[in-house]
Predict the structure of Protein arginine N-methyltransferase 2.
Amino acid sequence: MELGSRNDMESEEQGLSEGSEHQHDQECDDDSVLEMATAFADFHPTDDSQLGLQLGDKVAIISKNSADWWWARKGELTGYVPTNHITSHSDEGGGWQDGEYFGSYNTMKLHLEMLQDKPRNTAYFTAIQQNQHRIQDKVVLDVGCGTGILSMSAVKHGKAAKVFAVEASEFAKQTQALIEANGMADSIHVLEGKVESMKLPEQVDLIISEWMGTFLLFEWMIESVILARDRWLKEDGVIWPSHATLYLVPCSAEELYQTKVGFWESVHGFDFSALMPLAKEEFFHTPLYNHVMKTEDCLSLPQKILQLDMKTVTGSELEETTHHFEYTLNKAGTLHGFAAWFQVDFAGFHGDASEPFVFLNTGPDYPLTHWKQTLFMMDSPITVDQGDTLDGTVTIERNKVWRRHLRVNLEYSFTSITTKDIKVFTKLFPIWR
Ligand SMILES: N=C(N)NCC[C@H]1O[C@@H](n2cnc3c(N)ncnc32)[C@H](O)[C@@H]1O
């Protein structure tokens, strides 16, 4: 999915072409095989009805005799394997493109970018440090732990007793080495595999995860976090981030527009304006995931278009959401489109909601993060005055086939305060399909 930074991956979505469907396991064709699975931990058999496993072994599941033991085949050998040592491949299909997705998280460039994102890491570390007295001696689940940085912080700063650090990409092998190098192997258990198919030995007190993608939802990892919450978080447990909010604001993007589209007006003295529609289609068909906007680009106050309580939100609620907006422009200028960003909060432990809590805001009024802002460019800029209004809806629709992708539909009417003239606009933006 990405060949470099997480942001690059969105522009490299071609990497998620149909041809990139994961390789169908040959053994799957044997009709006695229910599905394939991979061992994410070594298993040493205690009797000869059991099959020994090494981390990374692929086994063919023949029958699921019980919740804890499945009859499996590894090469010519058959025997029982413990289900809490293997992760099933069954959800690799279904348009999740897991091969590419998890393969892409096995890059140093991506982890470098995330670990160098100071506001990102500071928010998580501060939340952990400020709640040490509530995390001490507790059990934590880190969903999508990557290098394990949040798990290590939960132990070092939060004094957690035990952390299950779940990571589906091969990078988990590096993570295990890092945990050992930092003397934390007895409290942090790295589990390679998808959290959906993980079998933990106990419920947890705290789930920590950094799951936010472009426009908050891209990658749709939020569904994995919700599933882990429903399956493994204690009733009175806490999930961080505890809340996620998506913001949208009408804005100018003059420099970008001139660079990508205005440029064609006159190219070395020649009229190339006939190419402007092609430029708009190519450059503005999808949102720009790495736009850095300035506060003065905002033409109104931002509005919240999605508010999630991570303790209660369900996957089905997120399939399609629509938010009605009304903006009154607070300055004259040029309306090129809309910018979006998110905020995540780390509340939930506090008894009293009034207690200050830590939050991470990726908007233009806060220190820049690797998410930057997401810019939805409309095709025709309009000159606007203070007092003009925009009235419309933003619909976020998850792709029914490509389950990590979504589409954002913007539909609104623009009313000029002076002429009372009304113009209607609509545009559908795939992220990225
Ligand atoms: N936009 C993000 N913050 N993406 C973080 C994704 C990190 O979580 C890992 N990850 C994503 N989904 C899962 C999952 N279902 N199970 C385990 N690890 C996951 C992924 O391999 C990467 O290390």
Q: What stands out?
A: Residues 118-130 form the longest helix (13 residues).
